[in-house]
Structures
1.
Amino acid sequence: MKKILITGGAGFIGSHVVRRFVNSYPNYEIVNLDKLTYAGNLANLTDIEHKPNYKFVKEDITDADAINQLFRNENFDAVIHLAAESHVDRSITDPTAFVMTNVIGTVNLLNAAREYWKGSYDQKRFYHVSTDEVYGALGEEGMFTETTAYDPHSPYSASKASSDHFVRAYHDTYGMDCVISNCSNNYGSHHFPEKLIPLAINNIKNNKPVPVYGKGENVRDWLWVEDHARAIDVIFHHAKTGDTYNIGGHNEWKNIDLINLLCNIMDQKLGREAGESAKLITYVTDRAGHDLRYAIDSTKLQKELDWVPSLQFEEGLAKTVDWYLQNEEWLNNVTSGNYQSYYEQQYSNK
Ligand code: NAD
Ligand code: TYD
């Protein structure tokens, strides 16, 4: 029996991690803590919300008192920390929100664990889920490894880099059992349509322009979200204390090539003439400080913990498109209300 606090479990990746742990480990008690920001959605978890080993707590990780009280009341064995502000464009508009949640929120969780796990650090694990964006940008060549120096460029990646440093500092200073993983761009179901792939699917479906930043030449390494959740499971259970793993898809795509592939898939799924959706592609002003290329070397994870991605990108992308087309209500719900004003503000001047 283990009681695990998963933070950010109502978000995109968090909901896949919660689902995996609730279903795979009926003898674990999973407590999902989430503030339910615009990105958090309990509709992501309707299939498991009534399971006896699952509980939801609405809380804000920037509220240190509330976090301490939760740790006092619940005897957690481990934390898997995913709660974060996660969108680069929003971090350019409002960096402070990223400092508050990603840095202060992480330190609040570390402080609570440090206090309430005293005397049993060897039996408790703090697993911090991070991003490859902390390593900065690559040129045409090379890949990020676990020893690549941190060089973040956006307020988002700077805040995640800072949180990673705090997690390592608590391991080195207090001897807490901390583990970190840094993953490349995820894609799949339940992804909030402010990020490239779900935004493009939604716009193509609605015959709206598909905004491509700059020349569309930036490269990202895409990983199926369920493969990320499986990697988190393996690392959580088998990593050595203080260890770090990179997680990636070995799947690099230029944005414009990815969007063209997506347009082809959407033409087929929607019964449109070939080339119809690609007419929606619209080049817009580039993102400030836009990192050119990310690519992850996940050899360590493959060799030590026997993890490899399971899906080819074309197959995963087609499955993702199917999910969005079959879950129109989910998409309509998350794109009503605040989404409209965000979209207006983000794309009107481009
Ligand atoms: P997301 O934005 O979809 O979800 C974040 C969740 O955190 C939401 O449910 C939100 O309500 C919650 N949250 C935000 N602020 C909070 C607060 N103050 N207190 C409590 N809950 C709060 O993000 P995601 O894409 O699922 O990313 C999850 C984690 O994985 C993040 O830490 C992110 O940095 C990391 N990551 C994401 C990617 C990616 O491609 N999306 C890749 C690598 C790493
Ligand atoms: P995004 O999904 O925001 O992830 P990240 O910035 O964390 O990598 O963006 C992926 C890539 O797509 C990135 O190079 C920026 C680009 N992009 C566009 O070209 N148009 C868009 O509307 C968005 C949201 C992103």
Note: The longest strand covers residues 28-34.
2.
Amino acid sequence: MNYFLTEEQEAIRDLAREFAQGKIAPVAAEYDKKAEFPWPVVKEMAKMDFFRLWIPEEYDGMGGGVMELVLVTEEFSKACGGISLALAGSALGTFPILIDGSDDQKKKYLPLLASGEALAAFCLTEPEAGSDAGAIQTNAKLVGDHYILNGTKHFITNGGVAQFYTVIASTNPDKGSRGASAFVVEADREGLVLGKKEDKMGIRASATCEVVFQDCRIPKENVIGKEGMGFSVAMKTLDKSRPGVAAQALGIAQGAFDHAVRYAKQRHQFGQSIASFQAIQFMLADMATDIEAARALIYSLAKMIDAGDKDYGKESAMSKLFAGDMAMRVTTDAVQIFGGYGYMRDYPVEKYMRDAKITQIYEGTNQIQRNVIARHVIRESARNA
Ligand code: COS
């Protein structure tokens, strides 16, 4: 399908494709096996300016938007859903500053993030606050001109490799979600301690760990937006980053599909290639249709956000819901087409299936996306009544 990308966007996509196939695909299985963060690849990503894409030009970025981020995430994820997350996770950690940061904060942090010299991570989730993001217990008490942070954040993408953490903590526990505030916390602050490193089913090249705050002193000027606005900062961040998860799911599905088509043509049973059987053809047709439907939704949404539309929470949740579920269907079918070989680690498709699963879970489970969509739909219908 022709999505009428600009020439520049096509060039970015082609460059990302070349980088992904040349630098990511050859090492994807190795990093997955070792569950190691791919520093050499990330340094090359930075050298190629991929981290600059979505940062405004005045902060040393290239002034692109969600579309550029989506195109790169899709191409990188086609090669490896885990390695792509070094970039997409940093975008997630950067969004609170981009969306609600002061000009001073933007000047201080964004150029470092744009150069790829520093990675960012977003800290919302806690052991007892996953879907119920308003239930966070990490707290920040104002003492003089510093906040003292205490609490545990877990499942933090880019945990341990990020130089900056954007953290949601409660400054007024009595007020629930209205009492949360957002902070930038530099990784080298005393009292920021790295906890358990997670051993994951998929996206194993992505660093995931606990980030613990033990009397961590943060200057007042590190508050993002205003005190009490933290929940809204978090929700706006998720609205903006969910198309990135959708793009990750899309790339994973496309990668698995490409392998499945090639294999179906090569594999012979009953004296002919299995691609000649209608059973396989119908699977391939459904997979291709599913993938294209997700791409159409994601690209339309990216265009809508980049055009300045501010009310995209529903479509953002829809893109993650549809693409995450689609990626699980497509990667499962890719394994099925490979048959017994698909189940073996010697072949690439089982990794796609493992990597796909997380896209139905993080940045809000797909059940939460349905809640978000339903709330919008019901609110819209009340407005139109
Ligand atoms: N943008 C801006 N503000 C928003 C918002 C959005 N998209 N969604 C909600 N808010 C505001 C509301 O307007 C409300 O403000 P007021 O108190 O001033 O009225 C406040 O936030 C609380 O909203 P709400 O009552 O809807 O919050 P709930 O506790 O019911 O939770 C869900 C809402 C379930 C949508 C939220 O908790 C969520 O998204 N959970 C999933 C979290 C998640 O994705 N976790 C993954 C980890 S992050 S990688």
Note: Residues 122, 124-125, 131-134, 177-178, 231-232, 235-236, 238-239, 313, 362-364, 368, 371-372 surround coenzyme a persulfide (CB under 6 Å).
